[in-house]
Amino acid sequence: MASYYSPQPKFYYYYSSLIILCLSTLLFRINSQPAPRNISLGSSLTAGAASKDYWLSPSGEFAFGFQQVAGSSANGFLLAIWYNKIAQKTIVWSANRNELVSSGSTVKLTKDGSLMLADPSGRQIWGPNGVGAGVSYGALFDTGNFVLANRNAAVLWGSFDQPTDTILPTQIVKRGTELISKYSSTNYSTGRFKFTLQNDGNLVAYTTFYPQTGSNFPYWAGNIAGNSVNFNKSGNVFLSSANGTILLYLFTNKEPTQDLHQRLTIDHDGVIRLYAYPKQSSPSAGRRWPAEWTTLSFMPEDNICGLMRDNTGSGACGFNSYCQIEDAQFPKCKCPQGYKFLDNSDESRGCLKTFPPQDCSSAGKEEGLFDLVEMVNTIFPSGDYEYYESISEDMCRELCLSDCLCDAVTYERASCWKKRAPLSNGYMDQENTGKTLLKVRRQNSTSTADKENDRSKKLMMTAGWVLLGSSVFVNLLFLVASCPWRNKNRMMSQVADDSDEATALSTNLRRFTYREMESATGGFKQVLGSGASSTVYKGVLGERSGGNVAVKVLDKLPERDGHDVREFATEVKIIGGTNHKNLVKLVGYCNEGQHRLLVYEFMSNGSLADSLFGGGAFPRPNWYTRTQIAYSVARGLVYLHDECSTQIIHCDIKPQNILLDENILLDESLTAKISDFGLAKLLKVEQTRTMTAIRGTKGYVAPEWFRNMAITTKVDVYSFGVVLLELVCCRRGFEMEGYEEEEMVLVDWAHECYGDRMVGRLVEKDEEAMKDLVKVERFVKIGLWCVQEDPCLRPEMKKVVHMLEGAVEVSVPPSPASYINTV
């Protein structure tokens, strides 16, 4: 018997090596992706109804070629990439999506390396952008990426770099990339929503200015700056920094990816969804997958119908329609009673009336022909043209029925909003406590305008012939002609009286005469402060009437009509209806002739500017007091933005408009109060912009004011951010005297100190703050988030309050671009 160590025959080693080599090759093939099939220069594909002409990925998972679009003409084809092994042939990328091509069109990888889509006549329709020179071949990978590469296999262009509405596993989305939704489930042209990683690194979902693709209203934002969006093989989708750090998970996957196809798509309804579809191989045990695309997750998780509240655009559905969430968070567009879809095959286009509108020329004779249909839990949040507060539902109904311009009213918590068509951004949600009352014509009634016009003409002709023979008719004409001139001033006075009486009755405000205000202020002698559009005087009403007050005299206007009078009264009602401990209380007003005055409670400790920047009669607040002031101002802004019956954008948050109550420096229950809220609406547009356009470097004004961008609550967030940094550092946002050049602009200096991990430099002369550097750093980070140049990056004030209180972790803010406010 041979020893264990005895030498083996040579053929033993030969076969052993052969077996090892075969096993290694088999394992390599199992664990590696098949090499793509190169598409040589000169190759082409032709569109045709019966054509099976396309280029496949190595395993056949994906195909590149022409796909006939359902619902289009027999000659409607789209150059696309699709899942080829599933029955639905789902398209994941397309070229020239807004223009289908006809049968006989071709796509060719030319001899010079160009990818060219041409119509049957040979005219080029499309070619990819950004392709470098030296293309040697094309290839479609099993990832779904179609590439053009050079002889060294370096990719010169890839479909992953220019996605349409979908991204796939292994795909990386870089800054500046946009995913634009399809128009509908069967129409692949660009739709009304987009999902983009902006050049500033923020990830935002927008409505678009359809049919253009420009950004309209942001309805979701990541609020953190990243470098790329990654869809990894494990099915996780996340935003990462340049060094690969995961900043934000968009979707996390718990399903076995080896058994599933996956894709992330911004759908035609604006929802971003992560889908899965079972592969042909048996799925893992534990879950039975249907042979269709299943939604694994979606965002935004909030009701998509209620997120779109901008004044421009139609929202989640078209004009005159409303949006309602049905199963699996899929929104459904519906028409109200009395309306029908513009296009039954495309419900997103909106609805139109099925009845003649109310005729304004009928002098009230059509009022009885209309009813208001109640739409419970349904609101149209934009498009108001008149607002009433402290009013009954019956009165709200009457106001709309008697107004021929009114198409609907929204009624909620004793408030009434009149609306004109087209109605927009409507949605139904059980959480909506309001209702819409929609004006519709009664059944079996038709417009009487034409009949009334004919009848009026006949009556006028008959009366004319009868009266022409009498001098009474001539005298009557002179009398009627002279009445408007004689009664103009009396009518204006009556309008003012009626509006002011309604304002006083619907609020607890006191209406003062101008003579009373002259007496209370001693002839407007003691000035407390002044601005571009108003001056504030100290007044005394007497102890029984409220004691000391601050009287704000708004600039006079040369002429005022009835609309101006009513508008002022309406805005005063809105301001007077506010009630929050961090808002200065409006006591009363004067609306007499050209005089417009607002009477506020008197704040004896002056403004935050008086004490914070020194040189005043009040001591500088300590660190604890300053933190309480920050909380107070933030909570006051939350009330104005989110908790008022009518949203108020302050537009001029600065230390001069933050007043301190009597005990602010002594009492531990510290509060500060915001003043001048709502003032922007009481002034003309040009006055408002003058008021808020503070000159100088790094003022309190958000960049939107100087860029013709929409003015939203985010302008107040920006201003609050500057004020917060001023509270931390006890200095103005821009100061030259006593500071080095890099310290002059507070926002830039704060970011530099934070980036260098030296926030202590900002408060080095404040012993109390130096002992609380954790909170100092948190406040500085919040301030830097608030002053981001892009409004979408700034947090809402609700979130700011949570961050100030420590309830929400504050992430690392991106660098705010240095911005100089110029005229």
Automatic annotation (TrEMBL):
InterPro entries: Bulb-type_lectin_dom, Bulb-type_lectin_dom_sf, G-type_lectin_kinases/EP1-like, Kinase-like_dom_sf, Pan_app, Prot_kinase_dom, Protein_kinase_ATP_BS, Ser/Thr_kinase_AS
Transmembrane feature ranges: 12-30, 459-481
Stretches of the chain forming a coiled coil according to its record: none
UniProt topology in membrane: Single-pass type I membrane protein
SUPFAM superfamilies: alpha-D-mannose-specific plant lectins, Protein kinase-like (PK-like)
Occurrences of domain Protein kinase (ranges): 522-805
Record EC number: 2.7.11.1
Descriptive protein name: Receptor-like serine/threonine-protein kinase
Uppermost EC category: transferase
Residue stretches making up the Apple domain: 360-442
Keyword Transcription: no
Compartments where found: Membrane
Keyword list, A-Z: ATP-binding, Disulfide bond, EGF-like domain, Glycoprotein, Kinase, Lectin, Membrane, Nucleotide-binding, Receptor, Serine/threonine-protein kinase, Signal, Transferase, Transmembrane, Transmembrane helix
UniProt xrefs under SMART domains: B_lectin, S_TKc
Protein family per UniProt: Belongs to the protein kinase superfamily. Ser/Thr protein kinase family.
Residue span, Bulb-type lectin domain: 30-161
Pfam families per UniProt: B_lectin, Pkinase
GO cellular component: membrane
Molecular function terms from GO: ATP binding; carbohydrate binding; protein serine/threonine kinase activity
Catalytic activity: L-seryl-[protein] + ATP = O-phospho-L-seryl-[protein] + ADP + H(+); L-threonyl-[protein] + ATP = O-phospho-L-threonyl-[protein] + ADP + H(+)
Positions bound to ATP: K552
Gene3D superfamilies hit by this protein: Bulb-type lectin domain (2.90.10.10), Phosphorylase Kinase, domain 1 (3.30.200.20), Transferase(Phosphotransferase) domain 1 (1.10.510.10)
